[in-house]
Structures are given as C-alpha cells and as structure tokens.
Specification:
Helix content: over 70%
Order of helices and strands: HHHHEEEHHHHEHHHH
Strand content: under 5%
Structural class: mainly alpha
Shape: globular
Largest sheet: 2 strands, antiparallel
Radius of gyration: 19 Å
Strand order of the largest sheet: 1-4
Oligomer: single chain
Number of strands: 4
Length: 295
C-alpha cells in the first residue's frame, strides 16, 4: 500500500510539473503581452507536428531535427505576432482574447491541411524504460521533463523579475500605452512572448508525447494545464511549479483512490473545482498581481 501510494504521489507530482511546463506558455505570453492565449493547446500540437515532421518524415537525427523544430517554432510564433498581434498594440484586452480564439481554429485548420487527420507515431526522444528505485517506477520522460521544468521556471522567474529586459516586458503587461510612453517597444515584447511561448509548447509536446501518438486530441493538454496557470496567477512563473505539484498530486491521488469508487471522472474534474474555490477567495490566483481586469 505504501509503495502504491508513493508511486501515485511521484507520478502525480511529475505530471503536475508537465502541466506547469505547458502553463508557462499561458503565463509567458500573458506576462509579456497581456494576451490570454486560448490556443495554447493547439501550439503544443503544432510543435509536436514540427518535431514529428523533422525526425520521422524527413529522417533527421534528434541532434539535428529537434533544434530545427525549435527554430521553426520560433518562426511560427513570430509569424503569429506579425500577422495578428502587431496590429492590436494598444487595443482592448477583449479584442486580443477574441483573436486567440480565432487563432485556435486557424491552427487546427493549418494542422489538418498540412499534416492530415491521421494519428502519427511520435519519435522516442526519451528512453521508454522507467527508472526503478526499489519498487518505485518513475517514467523517464516525466522525470527529465520535470527537472527541465524546474530549471526553466526558475530561470524565467529570474529573467522577468531581475533583468532590465524582463522588467520592460512586465511594464508592457501592465499597460501598452504606458509602456510606449516610456519608450518600450511593445511589438518587440509581444514578438518575444509568442516566440518563447511556441518554444515552450514544443518542449511540452516532446515531454508529453515521447514514444506515444500524436493527433489533434493532444490539444486537450492545454485545457488540463489551465487550472495550474490560474491557480498560480497569470503573472507568476515561479508559482507555476507549486501550483503544478498541487494539481498533479491531487489529480493523481483522486484518479487512484476516488475514481474507482464513483466510476471515474473525479480526477479530471477535481483540479477545476480546486481552481474555482481558490479563485473565489483570491481571484488573481495564489501569486498573481492584485490588479483585476474583467473581460
């Protein structure tokens, strides 16, 4: 019983860190451009297809295909900014939110046209054999992804809070007009946010899909990561790590112990219930800024 509990606990924590990695896309884009990206799940799918195309379709090695996939993700993020959001600088938050909903539909259409609706085998980036510590089984992809998430989360938190470039981007998130009056390039900040968000989404796809299958349903990981982003607060990158661990552990234990009692679904719904309860008490999340803007 203790070994089973520890397995559920560890795997839940690692899945929570995966959610935190996906949620970083939400937070980075919002933190640097004040845009809540409803198409985050679709960015993960698109990044996954970039990796699949480079490695499986073109036959490139991992050492060549993955850097090219990340470079293509950066280009895709910059293209999104140039086509849609460069024209919306200074516009209302509602306008930008509606554009991201349209972007969700557009990216799905692009994926269907470019890659088709078929289920694709995703390349094995991380070894499939789990790490065994006594009777504990730890998936390698989730473990490596969790370590990457911690390093990236701490690095981005330092960047946004301690560097001049990060503080300038924080000013953009506060108010576009004020940032422009201070001589800060809002377009450059937004472009960087979308490029970085695309890279994080591609990395999340690699951790999530290594050795699995890839299709449009993969975008559901974006919705699964939403409670983590909102619990932490849309401006807090460091808080994502704690929120991800909380959501992952609660979900893992609920799926293991509560789902069999009620026939399933508790583990999937419980993170959203916790999110709503926390937001009722603190609408900006556990670590979010106090300023609230209703959309």
């Amino acid at each position: 019983m203790i070994i089973e509990f520890l397995n559920y606990l560890i795997n839940g924590a690692l899945i929570g860190l995966l959610y935190a990695l996906i949620a970083m896309g939400f937070v980075v884009i919002y933190r640097a451009s004040k845009v809540f990206n409803f198409a985050q799940g679709e960015l993960v799918v698109f990044g996954g297809f970039l990796v699949w195309w480079m490695v499986m379709e073109l036959g490139l090695t991992m050492w060549t295909g993955l850097p090219l996939a990340f470079a293509a993700a950066v280009a895709f993020g910059l293209l999104i900014e140039r086509l849609f959001f460069s024209r919306l600088v200074g516009e209302s938050v509602f306008s930008m939110v509606m554009v991201t909903i349209g972007l969700l539909i557009l990216i799905r259409g692009v994926i269907l046209v470019a890659f088709g609706p078929q289920v694709r085998p995703f390349p094995i980036v991380f070894p499939l054999a789990p790490i065994m510590v006594g009777d504990l089984l730890i998936p390698r992809s989730l473990l490596y992804g969790g370590l990457l998430t911690i390093v990236i989360g701490l690095g981005l938190s330092w960047f946004f809070n301690k560097t001049r470039a990060g503080l300038r981007m924080t000013a953009v998130a506060e108010d576009h007009q004020v940032a422009m009056s201070m001589g800060i390039s809002v377009r450059r900040s937004v472009a960087f946010a979308w490029a970085l968000g695309s890279v994080l989404s591609t990395l999340g796809a690699i951790v999530y899909l290594s050795g699995k299958s890839l299709n449009l349903l993969t975008s559901e990981i974006g919705m699964a990561a939403l409670p983590v982003a909102l619990l932490a607060g849309l401006e807090s990158i460091g808080g994502l790590l704690l929120a991800g661990l909380l959501v992952g552990i609660v979900q893992g234990l609920a799926m293991a112990y509560l789902d069999p009692l009620v026939g399933g679904a508790v583990g999937s719904v419980l993170p959203f219930i916790i999110m709503l309860l926390v937001l009722l008490i603190r609408p900006t999340g556990m670590f979010g800024w106090k300023t609230i803007e209703r959309v």
